[in-house]
Amino acid sequence: MEAITSDAEPRAEAVLEIEGMTCASCVARVEKRLVRIDGVSASVNLATESARVDYPSGVDAAALIAAVREAGYDARVRQRGGHAHEAVHASATGAHDEHGSQGGMSMMWRTGRARHR
């Protein structure tokens, strides 16, 4: 077992709420974008529409949100207690081609649960 040294960069963890994912391909796309950030590891869950992200504390949560947005989805950081932090909200403007021309409309919207804007 390796000893943890004091010069190791401090880590942080966040849970992102992600809207708009509808399939395993969506999950893979989001995960791939998140792990492109140096030092980030992520586990994305379609059923809970969330991603658990472990990252260096020097990485801003806004960079995580931006990565999800670049993948084409809405995201926000879930605060302790399960509520999303509205100030760090990214809104995707379009859907990816393989799911048709729904625009920025998420599965939540199509199933009757209104999205927060």
Automatic annotation (TrEMBL):
Residue ranges with Basic and acidic residues bias: 77-88
The protein, known as: Copper chaperone CopZ
InterPro entries for this protein: Heavy-metal-associated_CS, HMA_dom, HMA_dom_sf
Keyword Secreted: no
Pfam families for the chain: HMA
Keywords: Hydrolase, Metal-binding
UniProt-listed PROSITE patterns: HMA_1, HMA_2
Positions of the HMA domain: 12-76
Region (Disordered): 77-117
CDD domains: HMA
Molecular function (Gene Ontology), one example: hydrolase activity
The UniProt record lists the keyword Hydrolase: yes
Species name: Microbacterium laevaniformans
Gene: copA_6
